[in-house]
Amino acid sequence: MARKSPLTVVALLASGSLLLTGCSVTEDVSGWWSETFGDASGPPEVREEFPYVREGRIFQDTGQDTEMRFAVTGLERTDEYTVMRYEVTYLGDFSGPNRNLSMAHTLVDPLTGRVYREFLDEEGLKYGSESPNQDGLYPVHDGVTNEYVRYFPRLPDETAQVTFVGSGLGAMTGIPVQDVEEETPGPENPNGADHLTLDDPPPSGENLTFANRRPDEDALADEGWVQSFVDSEIASTTRDGDREIISLHSDVMFAFDEASLTEEAEEVVRRAATTLATNVDPDDPTITVIGHTDGIGSASYNDNLSVERAESVRDLLAEEIGTGYTLEVEGRGMDEPVAREGGPDDEQARARNRRVEFSYVFDDTVEATEEEYDDDGLGTAQRNVTWPAPFSDDPGSVVAEGELDGVRLEIYPLRRDGAYVIGTVAFTNTTDEPLVPELGGTEAIQAGGPEQFNKGTLGGFQLLEPEAGLVRYVAQMDFGEGRYSSFAEEVHMLQPGNTYDLVAVFPAPAADVEELTLRAGPFGEFEEIPVEY
Questions:
Q1: Which terminus of the chain has fewer CB atoms gathered within 10 Å of its CB, N or C?
Q2: Where is the OmpA-like domain (predicted)?
Q3: Which residues pair with 248 in a beta bridge?
């Protein structure tokens, strides 16, 4: 029942208000790493301490951006599904139908990078709590708690806790998975249909509940992987599911219009051989060497040149890596550019597109190392995985801030979560008028940078390791068939005087990296942002 078709965007409104998501339960994480792990020999103990609650301001399509309380009250793994139970309470005043503008509800395994979304029917309506009129709309009343149930694909047995995103209130880390023989029954007497209008709220202290619809044969759910991108002047690494692609930038590999390796390039390939010997899955030891060119010249000429360059790299790699591997060669010419040519950064874009790649299935049993990165830039291929972050509703203290065109940016410490780091920032509209800040998108793409990892309004944000020269882009969620979702919250219309917390998720640096530089698009660079556990 894996979903393969594009998702239908569902408006979750109501004749009296709206519904949607959030997170929390405060936990002091000071000294958590050393106290929990000691010698880092095992995972932290997973404790069930529901509910997990968060409060904050969410974007709504009407601009009535009110405060919301979101509580995860259960995450049950049955033989068939993962069942999420949560409650939503709106703490401020609003009227009429509204829609939460957050991303879709998503469960993320921060160790493996697997992502899961809710089961939908053929019309795009969610299973679980049914809207009273079966149209995706729910009644919501000020100060009244709505209870909801949603179904996700069954999480693997080894997944003990997940990160939840999609509430509009950031990433909720450390949500434990509860193994149950049977899911908690739905409400015996759902009352949601009895209170559809603003002038008919439920009695004081009574929650709104809804009839439950379990998934049937028409149920479809998206499953995918977090896709990450790490870059340097020498190489870049893209990781998507169990496949890894190391890309060597051709401008340090070949002279113009040549297929013979330079002396510098030979040394880079030798270092790449060492990396590949460590990373390639021994059960699937095929390495495909792929040549690419820019868009200058004819297609046939570039096809031939890309093959010749890939063959040169393959021949040297074969000498260095030894036996036990199957080396294949492909030339894709100008057919798969990663950067858009013809714009103001045309030279950088073409340089980005001229590359040779190693594509392979990586060995997920290899443990991360705390050794320093090599100066040749191949540290881009190092995987850095710590344990999942414990839950916290406190982003910490502001460590840097800036202001641009009436928008104040506040930056909180970066927080490790498995194979990723979560960046939390706050935007405040300091003017008297609603405004949308100019962030991300093509305007904030680093010259010649890959467009795939610059989508979304925080897509222009990056993390830089100054000493290693490595740049970490905002991650994507890949659901197959060319369907991607940025692993960052969108920035919508900021209402006057309002503050909004948003997150962007990046691939994690090595365990010994304690500070990074945040490239915050048009806000500029902010150095020495701490990385915390």
A1: N
A2: 241-364
A3: 235, 356
C-alpha 340/C-alpha 342 separation (Å) is 7
pLDDT at residue number 438: 77
The amino acid at 145: T
* Domain extent listing, the chain: 52-221, 242-361, 400-530
Contacts of 390 (CB under 8 A, 6+ apart): 27, 29, 32, 44, 173, 174
Helix (H) / strand (E) containing 198: none
**Residue 116: both structure tokens together:** 């899961």
DSSP element (H, E) containing 427: strand 420-429
Local structure of 523: helix, strand or coil:
helix
Query: For the residues of 270-283, what is the DSSP string, one character each?
Result: HHHHHHHHHHB-TT
Burial class (CB in 10 A: 0-12, 13-18, 19+), 190: middle
* 470 in Cβ contact with 379 (< 8 Å): yes
Distance of CA 88 to the CA centre of its chain: 24
DSSP assignments along 220-281, one per residue: BB-EEEEEEEEE-SSEEEEEETTEEEEEEEGGGTB-TT--SBPHHHHHHHHHHHHHHHHHB-
| d(C-alpha 429, C-alpha 496), whole Å | 5
Domain 242-361 = CATH 1.10.645.10: no
Cα 414 to Cα 225, 424, 486, distances in angstroms: 22, 7, 18
Cα 288 from Cα 226, distance rounded (Å): 22
CB atoms within 10 A of CB 350: 20
Look at the alpha carbons of 303, 306, 312, 317 in this order and tell me if their dihedral is positive or negative: negative
pTM summary value:
0.85
Look up residue 241 and give its two tokens. Answer: 């599911």
Domain 400-530 -> CATH class: mainly beta
Please, what is the end-to-end C-alpha distance for the chain in angstroms?
A: 36
Whole-angstrom Cα distance, residue 199 to residue 18? Answer: 15
Mean pLDDT (10-residue bins), the chain, 533 residues? 34 27 29 43 73 93 90 97 96 76 93 96 94 87 93 96 93 95 93 89 92 95 93 87 86 77 87 90 95 88 92 94 94 83 76 87 67 58 87 94 95 96 96 85 50 62 91 91 86 93 93 94 94 91
Cα distances (Å, whole numbers) of residue 349 to 247, 345, 450, 463: 15, 6, 8, 20
- Identify any residues that bridge with 60 across adjacent strands, giving them in sequence order: 100
Q: Is 453:445 a contact under the CB 8 Å cutoff?
A: no
